[in-house]
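My current task is to audit a protein record that another person submitted. Alongside the sequence sits a line of tokens, each denoting a local backbone shape. Please read both lines and tell me whether the tokens look consistent with the sequence. Do not assume that whoever made the record got everything right. Thanks in advance; the entry in question is below.
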Amino acid sequence: METNLIVEGLKFMVLGMTMVYLFLMLMILVMKIISTIVNKYFPQKKIAPVSIKRAQSTECKTGNNDAIVAVIIASIQQFRKQKQ
């Protein structure tokens, strides 16, 4: 009788683990499909990278950080525009 219970327990364990594995694989597949659909119909806008070399001029090295502050402010404004 006890061997029968152990075998039944193992069967349920294998069945349960198989169902969890299949569910996770199905979920990953659905997420990939949704991702490709979203990227196809709602692509992200390309943003031109800001050149750091412009901010690293000789003025910045002498202590005048106006160029660096301007680059930081511009990047924050660009980030806030994207969020809206």
Notes: The chain has a mean pLDDT of 83.
